[in-house]
Amino acid sequence: MKALFEAIEYLFVEVIFKYTMDPFRSMESWWISNIVNWGLAVIGIVAFIYWMGELKKYAATGEEDKSISSHSYL
After folding, report:
1. ∠ CA 30-35-36 to the nearest 5 degrees?
2. What is the pLDDT of residues 3-24, one digit of tens each?
3. Among 6-10, 28-32, 45-49, 62-66, the least confident range
4. Alpha-carbon distance 13 to 19, whole Å?
5. How far is CA 6 from the centre of its chain?
6. What is the pTM of this model?
7. Which residue ranges make up each domain of the chain?
8. Shortest CA distance to 16 belongs to which of 8, 28, 24, 26?
9. Other CB atoms closer than 10 Å to residue 33's CB: what's the count?
10. pLDDT for the residue 49
11. Which letter does DSSP use for residue 27 in this model?
12. Are 64 and 73 in contact (CB under 8 A)?
């Protein structure tokens, strides 16, 4: 079992995250790191606002079945 977990560790640390996360770890500048973080936060906030707007549009159309029992066997 130990070899299995070591293989999983090797896969994630040395293969998957080696080239995707190492540039972020080695950033010398505090400003660049924070710009990347704030950029990702802004993208997430914009996506959240867009998704909430789409849900509001869907709820306004009244297509959803809001009956008490959601299944026919209830």
Report:
1. 100
2. 999 999 999 888 888 777 777 7
3. 62-66
4. 10
5. 26
6. 0.56
7. 2-60
8. 8
9. 13
10. 98
11. -
12. no
